[in-house]
Description:
The strands form two sheets. The chain has a seven-stranded mixed β-sheet, with helices on both faces. The protein is of the alpha/beta class. Helix 3 (78-88) runs antiparallel to helix 5. Helices cover 30% and strands 24% of the residues. It has one domain (3-192): Spore Coat Polysaccharide Biosynthesis Protein SpsA, Chain A. The radius of gyration is 15 Å and the shape is globular. The chain contains seven helices and nine strands. A hairpin with a 2-residue loop joins strand 7 (123-128) and strand 8. It has helices at 34-42, 57-61, 78-88, 108-118, 144-152, 158-162, 185-192, and strands at residues 6-12, 28-29, 32-33, 48-53, 67-68, 93-98, 123-128, 131-140, 167-171.
Amino acid sequence: MSARSVTGIVLAGGMGRRMGGVDKGLVPLAGRPMVEHVLTRLRPQVDDVLINANQNLDRYAAFGVPVVADAIGGFAGPLAGLHAGMTAAHRDLVVTVPCDSPFLPDDLVARLLAGLVAGDAQLAVARTFDQPHPVFALVRRALLPHLTAFLEGGGRKIDAWYATLPAVEVAFDDEADAFRNINTSDELAAASQR
């Protein structure tokens, strides 16, 4: 199984509350929207990409990839974005990354895939030291009915969902800074200096 059987899903469906309600994926970093930095790093690792967004759909579509909105209303979180992406994807595997992590690892998919295969798992999640990063996950698309049932039952927490599955955590201790996300104006200013 190669990385060429993976669809990338950029999660941009949140409300950006901690950044004052702005659409974080469209916030400029070093002169380009954050989502553009994410797409630049993710595209070489996957066969195709889509963006999950619930506002500014036309602006996201301008990046030349399909844009899918949550099927579950009320900005239900990253699991709703994963659900929307899995529904739209046609490959056996999907990988999720958030729109506010512009420094994501260049080898994210390869390492998650190696962990998934070695662990004979349904889902692989990135981890740095003792901190899992559940929005950086490689998921078998066959889990869509399981995820749908979890969401229909009121589940919203991504770590609660993957705790019910044969999952592996893949260590990225050597790339801990790559998982830094930008939630506030101060974090944006610090990242701009990088």
